[in-house]
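**Backbone shape codes:**
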Amino acid sequence: MLNTSPAFKENARRAMDDAGLQKALDRAKKPFAAVRAAAVARLPEFEALRETAKGIKNHTLAHLDFYLEHYAARVEAQGGAVHWCRTPEDARTAVLDICRKAGAKTVTKGKSMISEEIGLNEFLEKQGIEPVETDLGEYILQLRHEAPSHIIGPAFHLNREDWEESFRVAHTHLPADRVFHEKRDIQAEARAVLREKFTAADVGITGANFLIAETGTSVIVTNEGNGDLTQTLPRVHIVLASLEKLVPTVEDTLSLLRVLARSATGQEFSVYTTFSTGPKRADDLDGPGEYHVILLDNGRANMVGTEFQDMLRCIRCSACMNHCPVYLTVGGHAYGSMYSGPMGSVLTPALFGAEQAHLLPNASTFCGKCESVCPMKIPLTGMMRHWREREFERHLAPATARTGLGVWGFFVRRPALYRAATRAAAWGLGLAGRRRRGHFARLPLAGAWTRERDMPAPEGETFFARYGREQRGR
């Protein structure tokens, strides 16, 4: 759950000093961006698909109440049950009630960000129920008692030696000299342990990439097959999803799936794309006897009709994170939220309040790369700017920052005065800089910058003067 967003600056500073994390981030920076670019290049109609996907989600959000009711009716018609949960507490209670009725002692889980959002694992453990993460990355993090740092690559921040150490500490049956020579050795070790958990589980919990109103179906995509085992082997299947996962039809879902995998991992489709509709029927060979869908609001309904509604189009592909220079410098844990990167900088304040997470929208260079790669064309930088405005209005920013913006605002509304002031400042700083070898180690009102780096002294004319001269020359 959200825990350290107010400490983002301290978290980021520690992250940049963490040699192991920086090694992992450096290794992962290029592959995600490269495979996405290659996948997009192979699909000439990708840009048209983005526009289609955006339209599907906009239509759904405009008629969300209708599609929610229709979806719930279809789930119930198929023999399932829908649980409407306004808060994380409501969702946790609903899960616990289902588990207790099933007499569950062990619960397997397919990767679910909603379970992270509501703090489900810790809650179940306190109730005497063992939750077992079955995604390989999530499983490693559970052994390490760590939260995911990435949506699709939860162990994004770890190196190979971290994985091996985790197994040695948790899997006490391993001989001291065991070496994992290849990735498949790690996978085989995890598989041997998890197979027993799959067969012993009384309840399986998965997330949902999409919920189809037309059929009452939940859809999950994985590359390991753990989601299928989680929802078919136990007697009870629980789907944890938020309201905005609704999609009107199966055809709409297929359109969204075409942009999801390409944007996330550069695949045309994930290895496993699984559609689940209700509990097993009398003639089905396998499947759960009970099918429950827990629909979580947790502030999302309040986003509808606001300047943040577009964020509800997000399909959690993580493309924005994979291209964000800030995320790729500090990693996911620095954000102190289960949602990190540009999408987390918008969603976290919406779900948990600007007072708790007002630093996150400032964790952006506004380079716009996140918007350019988002398959749903979400205006992420614009929404981060809205949050910055609210931070300023609510006096959440430091007094020095608010005062500085106020002074800047006074001058910028008076163009002639602004140009005169910037010329004078540039001339004065340039003159002083020549006496300090072209840079300042300390500078009044710029302590946050000079504490970590030198401030270059201005050289030559101001931007406005240069721009005006260039224009006149043309």
Notes: The longest strand covers residues 236-242. Residues 116 and 232 are 22 Å apart (CA to CA).
